[in-house]
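Shape is hard to put into words, and the shape of a protein is harder than most. The fold becomes a row of whole numbers, each drawn from a learned catalogue of backbone shapes. The outcome of that step, for a single protein, is printed below.
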Amino acid sequence: MPEQDKKHQALNRKVMRERMAREEAERILELKSREIFEINEALKKANQSLDHIVAERTNELKQSQLEAEQKSIELSKSLERIELVVQAANATIWDWNIIHNDFDCSSRIEIELGYDASEIKTFSDFTELVHPEDHKHVLTLFDKHIEANIKLDINCRLRHKNQNYPWFHII
């Protein structure tokens, strides 16, 4: 019987080890399951928070888009009114981008000076049209306007394509 007792004891020890190993595995599995559950809950909360943030931002963007569209409509109306005023005043509109030295003028320049607007692309192109006697004065006033933000108000002669020099009031 001692032999059988040894086998029985060995078998009981083996069963006990397996039972302990299974219990440890179940404990670890329970712990890991709880960790996964908690992580899933945290992810759900984070997802809900992100959904809320995305919804807020989407609403803000929609509002901004509506405001931009409204401003665009207002700007278009304002530009139409300005165009009507310019036409009524028989004015030539010009714009000088100092940084890029782009000089743009309205198509009215063709009526006023005989040049196509595309012929006057830079500030130098424009200043070449200034009468030689007015040239220094005009450049000085432009410099003061740029450096000291002094209002631009110039009376000078500009060369027409037919070589005449009619007077202009530049503001």
Observations:
- The chain has a mean pLDDT of 90.
- The chain is about 70% helix and 10% strand.
